[in-house]
Amino acid sequence: MHYCYILQCADGSYYVGVSDSPDRRLQEHNEGKGADWTAERRPVVLVWTEPHESLSSARNRENQLKRWSHAKKAALIGGSPRLRSGQAYAQDT
Fold first, then answer.
1. CA-CA distance, 52 to 60, in Å (whole number)?
2. DSSP letter, residue 82
């Protein structure tokens, strides 16, 4: 199982990634071993995950979310049903 995940950084920004273990990856980010973006904005908090059967599917979702605005990511994190996987692919703005 792979997961697409969103971290909230100390400065309020979001980081989107993929991992087979979001909790382990969170720890790596907080130890400065993750992306440069998160290393400079620690601590980070895991605020959203979505399971995917394949790495390809998780990467596709990651790429979609990376194009979203901060506000749209916040709505997803807040539980907007319209933005859940499979429902938001048609509207990528």
1. 10
2. G
Size of the chain in residues: 93
pLDDT in tens, 1-26: 999 999 999 999 999 999 999 999 99
> And the tokens for 62?
């990651």
All domains of the chain in start order, with CATH = 2-83 (3.40.1440.10)
- CA torsion 33-38-39-40 (nearest 10°) is 170
The per-residue b/e assignment along 17-37, b for 16 or more CB within 10 angstroms, e otherwise, is: bbbeebeebbeebbeeebeee
Kindly report, residue by residue over 76-89, the tens digit of the pLDDT: 999 877 777 654 44
Q: How far is CA 80 from CA 32, 36, 42, in A?
A: 31, 29, 27
